TrEMBL record:
SUPFAM superfamilies: PLP-dependent transferases. Its cofactor is pyridoxal 5'-phosphate. GO terms for biological process: L-histidine biosynthetic process. Keywords: Amino-acid biosynthesis, Aminotransferase, Histidine biosynthesis, Pyridoxal phosphate, Transferase. It comes from the Bacteria. The gene is hisC. Residues 1-29 are annotated as: Disordered. This is Histidinol-phosphate aminotransferase. HAMAP family: HisC_aminotrans_2 (MF_01023). It catalyses: L-histidinol phosphate + 2-oxoglutarate = 3-(imidazol-4-yl)-2-oxopropyl phosphate + L-glutamate. It is an enzyme of class 2 (transferase). Its EC number is 2.6.1.9. Pathway: Amino-acid biosynthesis; L-histidine biosynthesis; L-histidine from 5-phospho-alpha-D-ribose 1-diphosphate: step 7/9. It comes from Devosia lucknowensis. Homodimer.
Length: 364
């Protein structure tokens, strides 16, 4: 057998479809970006001030365990900081969980329209992803449990889910967990928890505190710090120990640690984000529910709009782009070509999007 003439990636790596981020406007354009679920109110002023202060000390290494950030998170969320791991965005932590708990011959289970990073990190660890059909764009607990086999090692659950915005109640998540073997890790990805207004929702800390096979993952990206790349995870001691053994020793930079700590404690800013989002999410849902559009009820900071065909969705995307509003096409990444995902933005942006789509002749 002839040796290759250049380094070769591990088997399966080149079979992985790369992550496709939301589009932005062309360089120099004034297009409004509503494709990445970013904060419409920017970042907490306290977080910005903390980042500026930390930027005057760029010559020093950050504290390796993100102690200041973990202590702030523990204080605000009532969690022992020793059970928190911070990362370079929640994607960093999800990758580490896959690397730690999945390997060749293993399987991970997810709902079909779950976060598109899950298949990437599962396959990168050498495992197989099992996608389970949903019930009207909502995770189906019975179907997820029915997909579990002796090879299953991880269940990925985004709650609320991206890109659909749907969620499982705390009782449903508890039922999902109760049906899993104790050696299966349930990963509850609560990236959009700050925007949930449903009374029957739980971020997952109750399950984490009571069981040895549940972790909860969160992010600061939807709270105005997407550029800083800050994620955090709460888990049982044995999971925290395993992740800390392989994570990068300085995986959260110093300005991010300081900004994250300040943002966590700025509960007034977080509450204002939630209030703004709840109002305009409901308003946009009502405004777009008609003219041959269906809006899936959302608990996140976006809505998913279904059109009667992929062609109509593509025409709606182009019409919005021509008007200066970039939304997310989710056919390529998620297999829902007849849908668009629209981030909740400013009042002006929401009214403009509604006007543009409301005036389209979607019957053609």
């Amino acid at each position: 057998m002839t040796a290759p003439n250049r380094p070769q990636p591990q088997p399966g790596i080149l079979d992985i479809a790369p992550y496709l981020p939301g589009k932005s406007g062309k360089p120099g354009s004034k297009a409004i970006k509503l494709s990445a679920n970013e904060s419409p109110l920017g970042a907490s002023p306290k977080a910005l001030a903390a980042m500026v202060e930390a930027a005057s000390h760029l010559e020093i290494y950050p504290e390796g365990s993100s102690r200041v950030l973990r202590e702030a998170l523990g204080e605000v969320h009532g969690v022992d900081p020793a059970r928190i791991v911070c990362g370079n965005g929640s994607d960093d932590l999800l990758h580490l969980l896959a690397q730690t708990y999945l390997g060749e011959g293993d399987e991970a289970v997810m709902n079909r329209y779950g976060f598109s990073v899950y298949p990437i990190i599962t396959k990168a660890a050498g495992a197989s992803i099992v996608m389970v059909d949903e019930d009207d764009y909502r995770a189906d607990v019975d179907a997820l449990l029915g997909a579990v086999t002796p090879r299953t090692k991880v269940v990925w659950l985004a709650n609320p889910n991206n890109p659909t915005g749907t969620y499982l109640t705390s009782a449903e998540v508890a039922r999902l967990h109760a049906g899993l073997r104790p050696d299966i890790l349930l990963v509850i990805d609560s990236a959009y928890a700050e925007y949930v207004t449903a009374a029957d929702y739980s971020v997952g800390l109750d399950l984490v505190g009571a069981h040895d096979n549940v972790v909860m993952v969160r992010t600061f990206s939807k709270m105005g710090l997407a550029a800083a790349r800050i994620g955090w995870m709460v888990g049982p001691d044995h999971v925290v120990d395993a992740i800390n053994r392989i994570r990068g020793p300085f995986n959260v930079n110093l300005p991010a640690q300081m900004a994250g700590a300040a943002a966590a404690r700025d509960v007034a800013f977080t509450a204002e984000l939630r209030r703004h989002n709840a109002h305009w999410r409901e308003w946009l849902t009502t405004a777009l529910s008609g003219n041959r559009m269906r809006v899936i009820p959302s608990q996140a900071n976006f809505v998913m709009v279904l059109f009667d065909s992929p062609e109509t969705a593509a025409r709606a995307f182009e019409t919005l782009a021509d008007a200066g509003y970039i939304v997310r096409e989710i056919g390529p990444s998620y297999g829902i070509p007849q849908a668009l995902r629209i981030s909740i933005g400013s009042e002006a942006a929401m009214r403009a999007v509604a006007d543009v789509l409301g005036s389209m002749d979607l019957g053609k």
